[in-house]
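To the wet lab folks,

You asked to see what we're planning to order before we commit. Fair enough. Below is the target structure as tokens, and below that is the sequence we designed to fit it. If anything looks off to you, flag it before the synthesis order goes out.
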């Protein structure tokens, strides 16, 4: 536990008695002595806090750079997720219109979209296409050296983030799993600076090394991540041919909300899952991790098995060999989200059935009493505690996004000790009076603390 400034000052006062002249000056409040001791104590307290953080860094991952390095080792790539939209086409011309896969569209803000599912619309008729918000960036890379596991760093886009990458003539194989020597494959990795790289094979070991002077054709798909689109927003073709019939394109529905790469708090949670560096869903916890990795920006997700289901609702033959899913993502329809999650789970293990359980939002009451030293402003301390609790246990927190999550008193004490200086003083204290309403906890419950459900009281410390 870190030593506080007051404790260092007290240690200095205990020793100053051996120096009568300095002791007398300290007793009369000579600022030259008191300020020197206070300044040294403050610096030592900072060093002590750093040592305390370093001691538990392996387990706590308190620093952002540690989280990024951990994610890089475990294969969490900082890709963004593009929006996917269903677009209605009204053909107002006298000839049919064919929209092919890969054709480029522009929305009202000038963002690029590419058609995923094309269609042919007859004259005067209405059709539907599906497009995703990406811009294709083609890069030609010349291999500069003969090197095993040759690596190519990908330059970030001028606007947005990288969403997907492919290499002409090569196949993506995560972690070089089950790769024969000579196979044309590549692996994607990143580092603590979130630089995305492509790694190719090594001759005679796994895959093959690109020959010196050969050219690698890279296709990078860039996206702006989370964007705002309203139903009825118009789209246009990037290019239209001479004599093409007039077409009116409007947004029908956003089937997948775009998302930027994972932020640090989310990445810290994701990296806590066992086996995160592998996409093999061997353990139950890995099914939930796999869904979070493949379906980002979830507001809430809980995945559980028949044993957990029958522990709360009793046994039933209908539960046999089923996975239960309760999920919510703001801006996405529930049936669309469930279809995405079901596809991910069945791809991982198609021996299971997948059953959906509606999300139930539950507001979590929490009552805390603070004993604040009289030298601190009690209202400021209360506000600091409220901000900490709401950021760590509010509706958008990483804690709330996980099913069956519990607020633990020891976590609250550690949170306040590390972030509220007034509560680290010797006479300060914290009491967590009550958590929750005592009702049974169900795996589909989306629990979180709100400003109204959080009550923070304060008393003056003796």
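Sequence we intend to order:
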């Amino acid at each position: 536990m870190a030593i506080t400034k007051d404790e260092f000052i007290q240690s200095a006062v205990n020793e100053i008695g051996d120096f009568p002249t300095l002791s007398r000056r300290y007793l009369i409040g000579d600022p030259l002595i008191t300020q020197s001791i206070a300044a040294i104590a403050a610096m030592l307290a900072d060093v002590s806090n750093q040592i305390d953080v370093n001691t538990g860094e392996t387990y706590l991952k308190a620093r952002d750079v540690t989280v990024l390095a951990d994610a890089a080792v475990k294969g969490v790539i900082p890709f963004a997720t593009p929006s996917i939209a269903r677009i209605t086409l009204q053909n107002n011309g006298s000839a049919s219109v064919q929209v092919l896969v890969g054709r480029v569209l522009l929305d009202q803000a000038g963002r690029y979209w590419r058609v995923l599912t094309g269609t042919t619309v007859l004259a005067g008729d209405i059709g539907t296409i599906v497009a995703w918000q990406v811009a294709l960036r083609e890069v030609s890379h010349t291999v500069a050296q003969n090197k095993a596991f040759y690596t190519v760093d990908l330059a970030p886009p001028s606007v947005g983030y990288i969403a997907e990458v492919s290499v002409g003539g090569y196949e993506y194989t995560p972690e070089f799993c089950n790769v024969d020597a000579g196979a044309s494959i590549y692996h994607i990795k990143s580092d603590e600076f979130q630089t995305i790289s492509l790694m190719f094979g090594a001759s005679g070991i796994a895959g093959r090394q690109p020959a010196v002077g050969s050219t690698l054709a890279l296709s990078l798909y860039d996206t702006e991540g989370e964007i705002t689109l309203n139903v009825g927003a118009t789209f246009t073709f990037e290019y239209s041919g001479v004599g093409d019939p007039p077409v009116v394109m409007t947004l029908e529905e956003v089937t997948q909300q775009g998302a930027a790469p994972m932020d640090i708090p989310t990445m810290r949670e994701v990296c806590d899952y066992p086996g995160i560096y592998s996409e093999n869903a061997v353990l139950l916890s890995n099914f939930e991790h796999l869904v979070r990795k493949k379906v980002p920006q979830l507001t809430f997700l809980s995945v559980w098995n028949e044993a957990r289901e029958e522990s709360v609702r009793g046994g039933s033959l209908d539960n046999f060999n089923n996975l239960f899913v309760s999920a919510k993502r703001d801006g996405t329809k529930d049936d669309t989200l469930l279809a995405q999650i079901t596809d991910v789970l069945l791809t991982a293990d198609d021996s299971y059935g997948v059953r959906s359980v509606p999300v139930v939002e539950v507001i979590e009451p929490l009552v805390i009493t603070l004993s604040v030293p009289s030298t601190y402003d009690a209202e400021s301390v209360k506000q600091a505690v409220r901000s900490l609790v709401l950021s760590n246990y509010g509706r958008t927190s990483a804690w709330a996004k996980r099913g069956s999550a519990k607020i633990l008193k020891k976590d609250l004490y550690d949170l306040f000790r590390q972030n509220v200086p007034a509560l680290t003083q010797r006479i300060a204290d914290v009491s967590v009076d009550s958590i929750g309403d005592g009702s049974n906890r169900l795996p589909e419950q989306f629990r979180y603390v709100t400003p109204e459900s959080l009550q923070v009281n304060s008393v003056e410390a003796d």
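Structural context that might help your review: Residues 417 and 423 are 6 Å apart (CA to CA). The mean pLDDT is 85.

Thanks,
Computational group
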